[in-house]
Amino acid sequence: MINDSWEKVYKENAPYLLGICYRYVSDKALAEDLMHEAFLTAINRFDTFTGRGNFRGWLRKIAINTALLYLRYSVPKNLPPPDLLEEEPYNDPDDDPRSVIENAEFTRDDLLNIVNQLPNPYKEVFNLYVIDEYSHAEISKILHISEGTSKSYLARARKKVQKLLYVKARKKEEDLYISRSHIYGNVGVLYKTNFKSYYSGYMEGFDFLYRLFKNLQDIELTPLKPLNFAD
Fold first, then answer.
1. What is the pTM of this model?
2. CA Rg value for the chain
């Protein structure tokens, strides 16, 4: 590809690649540096692209690998993963956490913020499995862990995400109630939710959680310092 062609590719794909890197490192300035590194890697390795697959998918893999490579060498080794399940399970027979979560209107920013609250390696596995659709066998090879460890990290991350979603959903309901109270007064409010502080129990079936976070697959962020192709 000539220089003009790469500049066009950059403009079309940089926001998408930046969104991917940000999901993994949670820092926009760092994510932009990694996105640029990934893009330069794509330019230097373009001869390895056979043309038989999706070009954007090829760029996506490079961006993911670049972010994971950074995390591999920046995170202290031989440290046990943090404990995500520090609270005792909370169960209320009158509460339906799945319904609360499914009925909430989460924005992409809400979901992105929740993913970014996961510490590594849980966030890496959650991103790879749920959003980027890698198998546990593939994750095992990428992160140099066993498939069983990958499944364990996913289960813990999923439960933490479930709690964070529940807390966010309840906060949205509380904010809506307060807003309606200000407008109509206490008498005119049609309902008042029985707010809970959190839910950390277990919910069967996680397909709805996976569908929710699939919305982050193609999230795009605007680069603050675009690459200069004039040099």
1. 0.82
2. 21
